[in-house]
Structure formats: C-alpha cells, structure tokens
Design brief:
14 strands, 385 residues, Aspartate Aminotransferase, domain 2, 2 domains
Length: 385
C-alpha cells in the first residue's frame, strides 16, 4: 500500500500538510512590496527564537551553507579558530574552515560527550592567537546538547567571535543568543522551524558585523555584505532570487508555532523525549549519549549485540512506512536514532515504540512485547494528568 512515510528523523522532520500546501501558492516577485512584508515578518518572528535584537539575515541554503557563510565572512585567511568537535557537525566546521585556509585548532571529544569550559580555556592558553570559536549547539550525530551559556560566559570578554551551529537546536530548544554572548548563530528551515529545506538563517552581533566589514570575503553568493545592503533597502529583499515557495511555507510554519506558543512547543518536545527514554529503559536498550549531555531533539540508541542498526531501520521502514535514523560516521554500525521534534505527538511516539518492539521481536532481541509501549503510556499518562 502506497502511503506517506512518517519521519522520526532529526531533519527533515515531519511537516504539517498545511505548511506544505502553503508553498504551493502562486509566486510573488521578490523585489516588490508583495514579497517584502513576508520576508520582513519572517525575520522578525525568527528573532524571537534566536532571542536576539540584532541583525538576522536569510539565505537560500541548507545548514551547511550557512556554516560556510559564517566562516567565509568573518575570518582573514591564516587566522586561527578553535573548532570544538562533539560529533560530525563539529568536524564539518573544521573542514569548512580548512577549505578557506584558516588555521584550525581542533578540540576533539569522544562522541557522546559534551564540551567543557576548562578544556576550551586550556586551548586558549596554548593558542593565544585564537580569533574565533565554533561550537555545535545540538549535535544530531551524537545526541549531545552543549552548554552554550557557560561557554559564552567564558568567552564574553575575549576578543574572539563565538559562532554556534544551531541548525537542529534553534527552534526546538530554548536558545538565548544575546544573553549567552553569541556573535554568530546559524540555523535552517527544515528542523525546529517545521518547514521544508531551503532557507538558511544567520544572526550577527555588532562585533560580528564589524569584523565582516573588515574581511575581504572570498565568496560572492554568500558574501553577507550583499545581504545587509539589500535588507536595508526601502523594499527589503534578498540580494539574489530566494526560494520563494519555501519562504511561503516557512512563514506559515512560524505563524503556526506562534499560535501554539514557543515555550509550549519546547515543553512538548521535552515530554516526548522523556517518555521515549522511559520506554527504552523498559526495553533494556541503552542510550549512547552521556547523561549530562542529553538532548530533547533526538535520542541515540545503542543497538543490541548481534543486530545491525540497518536491520531495525529497514524492518520498520519497509513494512510500516516509519523512518528512524541510522548512525553517522563511525557509529553507522552501532546506533540508531529517534527524533522527538517535528509535527509529531503522543500518537506517533506510541506507534514508533510499538513498531520498534515488533522489529526487535522479529530480530530475536525481545521474547515478549509490550514492556516498552506500557512504559511509554505510563510516562505520557503522568505528563497529562
């Protein structure tokens, strides 16, 4: 039977049909007052998620595109940055910086562990010429949520730029750009903002804008000087043709979240994540991520001995049209991942755990089914009572 696939993945996430339909409306010209109010309203609504009163720009790209944008606009060739790596996307920041001939100091953590301020301090003592620090807010490869508030407090009086990849975190988790002393925060439309892929976001502190005005940016399309100039025109716009249809969907999604309530949505995700973890405990499935680093965006689960994670993912996908995420990098043969963000609720979580139990029974891990689903239902019952 041909049917839609339920995405229990950390991005793209499950979307509401109304949001998808919003992208099907007739196009507007991006350099007219037909489009400018929508662009401006998206920027202003996004600032509420970033918790910033500073500059926020939109690009046409995925998360990796705005990661590159952050690097290429803010550093002179040969400058030194500290790249804090707590997973695959921290490593990607290092690769991007090296591609633009920066000197990259890599602070590598074992996957599953979060960054520590004392380790960052040690790197500054060894490398006093550091001009920027990159940290992933929420690392989807490892399920790690980093403590940006503590890192920002440490960095606030240093002459460096604090850059964070918030692609999977901003919109799904509480985030405080200004209060946490973050200079460059990036995100994208396809995760916490509940919209299709295609719109990248980058917010800049005054210090970041000052630095980019001094850097001879070795890029054209992602040169933020063009974006700032066009945003400040009488009719605010992109410098290039934007993904107009995606912007329609993003605008509808932001209005939808505003109606639900941002804090209420964060609480909902937290409840789903907590209930999921109770069900995993009942199934004797262990979590890969260290307890002090756990994220509410997704949970990374160790696969039982003798079972390949692809067997679990494929069994559920091929037979029931529900997609879990496999592992990334060197974890590809060791873990699978279940997201708790997107347009999902208790119904989707109950279905997912039930199907996980069926798969684990077929694969020989479980002798009896029901323990995980029962634990999940009890957790949900407590949350709603």
């Amino acid at each position: 039977m041909d049917q839609d696939i339920l995405l229990m993945t950390p991005g793209p996430v499950q979307l509401d049909p109304e949001i998808l339909m919003a992208g099907a409306q007739p196009l507007k010209h991006h350099r007219t007052n037909d489009f400018a109010p929508l662009y401006t309203e998206c920027v202003n609504m996004l600032k509420k998620f970033f918790k910033t009163n500073q500059r926020l720009l939109l690009t046409t790209s995925s998360g990796t595109g705005v990661m590159e944008t952050a690097i290429v606009n803010h550093f002179h060739q040969g400058e030194t940055i500290l790249s804090v790596e707590t997973g695959a996307f921290g490593e990607r920041f290092s690769e991007i910086a090296k591609a633009f001939r920066l000197n990259v100091v890599q602070l590598k953590y074992p996957w599953g562990y979060r960054a520590k301020v004392e380790d960052i301090d040690a790197e500054f003592k060894k490398h006093p010429d550091i001009k920027g620090v990159t940290v992933t807010f929420n690392e989807t490869s490892t399920g790690v949520k980093n403590d940006l508030a503590a890192i920002g407090e440490y960095l606030k009086n240093k002459n460096v730029l604090f850059i964070t990849d918030g692609v999977s975190g901003i919109g799904a988790l509480p985030f405080e750009m200004d209060a946490w002393h973050i200079d460059v925060a990036i995100s994208a439309s396809q995760k916490g903002f509940l919209a299709p892929p295609g719109v990248g976001m980058i917010a800049l502190s005054e210090k970041a804008v000052d630095k980019l005005n001094k850097v001879d940016c070795p890029a054209y399309y992602f040169n933020l000087k063009h974006y700032i100039k066009n945003q400040d025109l009488p009719i605010p716009s992109y410098p290039w043709t934007p993904a107009i249809s995606v912007m329609f969907s993003l605008h509808a999604a932001l209005k939808r979240i505003e109606k639900i309530g941002i804090e209420k949505l964060f609480s909902h995700y937290g409840n789903l994540a907590a209930a999921l973890k109770e069900s995993l405990k009942a199934l004797n499935l262990s979590i890969f991520t260290q307890p002090d680093a756990l994220s509410e965006v997704l949970t990374v689960i160790n696969t039982p001995a003798g079972i390949h994670p692809k067997s679990i993912v494929n069994e559920i996908h091929d037979n029931y049209n529900v997609l879990l995420a496999g592992g990334q990098g060197h974890l590809a043969d060791k873990v699978f991942r279940i997201a708790t963000i997107g347009m999902i609720g208790e119904r989707e979580m109950i279905a997912t755990i039930g199907l996980l139990e069926l798969a684990l029974t077929k694969l020989g891990y479980l002798k009896e089914i029901g323990a995980g689903t029962t634990a999940l239902l009890k957790a949900i019952s407590k949350q709603t009572s």
